[in-house]
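Now read these lines:
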Amino acid sequence: MRTNKKGQALIEFVLILPVALMIIFCIIDYSRVLYSKNHLESIANDVVDEYKLKGNLNNSEIIKDNDLLYTIDKDSKYTTIIISQNVDLLTPFSSAIFSNPYEIRAARVFVYE
């Protein structure tokens, strides 16, 4: 007896497609977050170098993005520079696990003499 397997393959494909797409978009979201974190770490290093040279960041040319926030905290011995950015997550599943937008931070603490 012959059975038609074409319909079974179509049903399996339709059942697996949303799961596969969700996994792909989660990978894309995770890649975007890692890229943004790496970018912020690089900017933080540049900001510390400029801060050590000039002593202030009022007219900084390094932080050009409007969506980047930075704070400088000085106490008697240490200076802390924190740079943060919000990344919008694309996947609804990622948004259910993490807050949307997801905040990424890079901080540097150094002795400023």
Notes: The radius of gyration is 23 Å. Residues 6-54 form the longest helix (49 residues). The chain has two helices and three strands.
